[in-house]
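so i finally got all the pieces together for this one. its two components total, 852 residues if u count the protein bits. some of the lines might not be protein, just check the labels. i wanna see the whole assembly predicted at once instead of chain by chain like last time, that was a mess tbh
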Amino acid sequence: MTEPDARPHVVIVGGGFAGLWATRALADAPVRVTLVDRRNHHLFQPLLYQVATAGLSAPDIAAPLRHILRKQRNVEVRLGEVVGLDPGARTATLADGEALRYDYLLLASGATHAYFGHDEWAGDAPGLKTLDDALAIRRRLLLAFERAEACDDPDERAAWLNFAVVGGGPTGVELAGTLAEIARHTLRREFRNIDPAQARVRLIEAGPRVLASFPESLSRKARWQLERLGVEVVTGTPVTAIDAHGYRLGEAFEAARTVLWAAGVAASPLGALLEAERDRAGRVRVAPDLSVPHHPEIFVAGDLASVQQDGKPVPGVAPAAKQMGAHVARAIRARLAGRTAPAFRYRDYGNLATIGRMAAVVDLHGLKLSGALAWWFWLAAHVFFLIGFRNRIIVLVNWAWAYWSYQRHARIILGGADAEAPRDDR
Amino acid sequence: MTEPDARPHVVIVGGGFAGLWATRALADAPVRVTLVDRRNHHLFQPLLYQVATAGLSAPDIAAPLRHILRKQRNVEVRLGEVVGLDPGARTATLADGEALRYDYLLLASGATHAYFGHDEWAGDAPGLKTLDDALAIRRRLLLAFERAEACDDPDERAAWLNFAVVGGGPTGVELAGTLAEIARHTLRREFRNIDPAQARVRLIEAGPRVLASFPESLSRKARWQLERLGVEVVTGTPVTAIDAHGYRLGEAFEAARTVLWAAGVAASPLGALLEAERDRAGRVRVAPDLSVPHHPEIFVAGDLASVQQDGKPVPGVAPAAKQMGAHVARAIRARLAGRTAPAFRYRDYGNLATIGRMAAVVDLHGLKLSGALAWWFWLAAHVFFLIGFRNRIIVLVNWAWAYWSYQRHARIILGGADAEAPRDDR
């Protein structure tokens, strides 16, 4: 029903931090914007591990893109998946066959899990990128304790109570720390045949230390905090095999029914649709203004973009994605005004990672915090940045409750969680 | 790890209102109790329609059975499905092969949807009994508006915006009223190509009036309130066919992509495992003390029990299920003490149904309320009865927010909601 529109058309693919921030920054620009996402919601990814570990409900950390953008009249939100790009004809084709003609295109479709050439591990070691991933992991964690409770064979029971998280970056640290808390505190006294506190939670990092993007002193503190929570931290040893029965660490096979993958990310496959140079992780190497070389009308931002600054890569974190998104909006405005787009410059305000109740590390370039103070800082920052006023209140109430009671309210198994599912349905 | 235990073993199948209330009422009885449920949570079913219509998150209205019962040391909670009963050997067999030997058995596995011999309608007209049902309905409702927005063909668009709820009982009334509110208010201004307020919401009841279990004056008021919310109420006409493209009402075919089923329930198939007389809906006809004739050690309670009182059936509502559950606990205690179990007597305190924002009907035997006052009464009663202190607070905050803003926070499409799903995946 939209009439022919003379305004330049900006197509933005992906409603994550980069895409959404670009969209918002084009609010009063003389363009019309189409924001395409495969999902109907923007996701506050930094809290995804809380949904996976039953501390928050899925809707607590997500908001419908349409709702966020309802007042921005130059935007149309489109639920759809881009399956083809034709830079010559300047069209992006959706899965339903519709071709969107663009004047400017922003690809901000993010990243997905990478199994380093072992895609066969995906079924036995799920990763955490979407709300559906989080609910699948939640279901698996909760069912593992149920299976252990119902099981008479000691070896099988031990395998159900053996949890491994592969990858010692922020997501792996969060998952392992929270999982240890669940076993030690949340589930205490709820079972009759097992003691959940006997569960073994292992965090496995192939490199020499956890949280490698932090200063070494904070990595040490993070490890110490993890161990205090009951996590066994293994560094310097790669996982060499994963199947339904367990995993191989170096030479030793560990019987474990629950392995979570937090070790690798690869750029969204959308980058491959461009004829542009990509790095090892599949990210598109962009020009200083974030456009694609030889295609000044195409931009890439967020986890899909490979950007070097001062000899180091700009990290794949939310603040960088937001800054890139906002920059692309500025670049498009500059082009429209006949000016040259400025170069992107990442402002690094610091680095935070949470570990568990009252445990976190914060690196503010010079100011390093760990423990309870770092945790309060992390909490304040994350609640502040949560999109949507309502979500912030709810998340705070949930957290206050969880903190006071050690309880996690979302311990509901959803999605074909019936007990008749085969025991090997992992 | 439990040692041989001389206490009589009570097996309770189903953790709904009947099973959970029976379990709790056996807290200090000289028995050990095993509570078996296919799901890990007790569900506050009266608010399930709020999850289906994106007003509440799934965990808001559910609590893990283990958590509710963690302090009751004579109970073991077992995630599992009963697939066989042997009243002679007094065993209940689970899907994983384990046979639970009981001294007393309570079957409280509730009800499921019934399509009156048209099971082929199930895929195109989902019903609402579990959290997974609610999330599937939520997904379907939200996707319908997305499909309409993306669609160029006026007929197809109209079919996506045509919603029908079959069945004018409390669930049908709640779904239709809330759906009309979503279209008229919640989604206002969020779409660019469609006006959600143009959506057609029809409530279809084959009998002469909606809410047939209420006095006629309240049925009239309910109908009037529904119509004021924008629902088209059709009574006295049965739906005679449903498929992926629409439904047949009398002789006319209506192109509609979303049909919800709230017309019929049938007792859980577990009742058929007993060699006992059952009514037309499959409910087990029980003796006055709720035991199964010829099997004084087997009880049936809740929606699975067919109980007559003063010539009328006891209704399938939460208060009746709770009372039956508590009664069965009393009956078991009486038997253990060598006394005769008393007869069950249902105390009917009244009947409530909600319709939408500030719209409800309440029948307290003599005192009849409708409109805003009835709605406040309904809200207070439901929040009061919600299990778990935390859930009550969260639900209240959610409602306060929803009321103030007309917004529904859980409008998140989960579960393979990617746009590449075929358009006919309904």
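Chain B touches chain A through 66 residues (CB under 8 Å).
The domain at 119-263 of chain B is CATH 3.50.50.100 (FAD/NAD(P)-binding domain).
anyway lmk what u think
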